[in-house]
Amino acid sequence: MSRDKAGWRTARVVVGRALLSLLLAASAIWGCLALAYQMPGGVWGKGAACLTWAVLCAVAMFALWRAPPWRRRAGWAYAIGLALLCAGWQMVTPSNDRVWADDVARMLHGTVQGSVVTLENVRNFDWRADDDYTVRWETRQYDLDKLESVDMALSYWAGPAIAHTLVSFGFADGRHVVFSVEIRKERGEQFSEIGGFFKQFELSVVAAEERDILFVRAGPRGENVYLYPVHMPPRAMRELFLSYVNTANALTTTPRFYHTVTANCTTLVYHMVNAIVPGLPLDYRLLLSGYLPEYLYEQGGLDKSVPLAVLRERAYVGPLVAAEDDPVAFSRRIRH
């Protein structure tokens, strides 16, 4: 073998082992996070499992650069550990039977008769503070023949790029109902973007009065809420409403995990709307949902007769001190 060929072969081996080392490092990080979020046994059990997996990955990485007997033994040990980890991961399944936080304790369910939709478990809490509220779940009927408007609400709590997306449907009598795709928190849990990658939360669809779900965000939680009127033809508005109902009904029988990227408050809305109006382009702003107004403006979903900056100023729902008992009066007030 010539010196050049031998050099190329050595270089390929080194590059291959370096890439395998990177894959092992990535699997070490993923495995430790998965174990940290899902391994039973409390802090000590999670810690021991993470340490064991990290050591196994480190030994496998070290063995890549050693003699063949080392590589074979470490490779088999890593493969067995990875198989056990993946098997355990597949055993983590979503459930509707947990001790849930009060604001997601009940699941939305809807029935359709002609143009009338009956929603069970519409949330209408009286919020005095984020941890001080009166629980109230109600059954409501909505006539889709009288559906007149769709508004997109964005609630910012962590800078301009990240916002929670809600959709409000308005009817001829002045009533509104808001649908929100949310994590279904267990009692005492807090939202975590990282946890959303590792099956920490189930997925839920909440239907609520604006005086509940928009007030608690713009008031007690101190978030910046914007409400944008969306241009949609009546048929599309109706189908989007029914898509929320169908998604909620499916979750009552087949629970799903929330996922920070693939199954969140924005991507699910995109899939619903894309099924109604095919051809909507994928865009980074579907993940960085704080920039959704720019995306909708470009796609003609917002009023383009005025600059977006003007729309944003009009859309701002200022800090709210109290919510009216009358939901129609509240909805009228936040629209200035």
Automatic annotation (TrEMBL):
What is the name of the protein in this document?
Lnb N-terminal periplasmic domain-containing protein
Transmembrane stretches, start-end:
44-64, 76-92
Species name: Achromobacter piechaudii
Which residue range or ranges hold the Lnb N-terminal periplasmic domain?
134-290
Please name the InterPro entries in this protein's record: Lnb_N (IPR025178)
The answer to keyword Transmembrane applying to this record is: yes
> In the UniProt record, does the keyword Transmembrane helix occur?
yes
Tell me which Pfam families the record gives.
Lnb_N
Assigned keywords, A-Z: Membrane, Transmembrane, Transmembrane helix
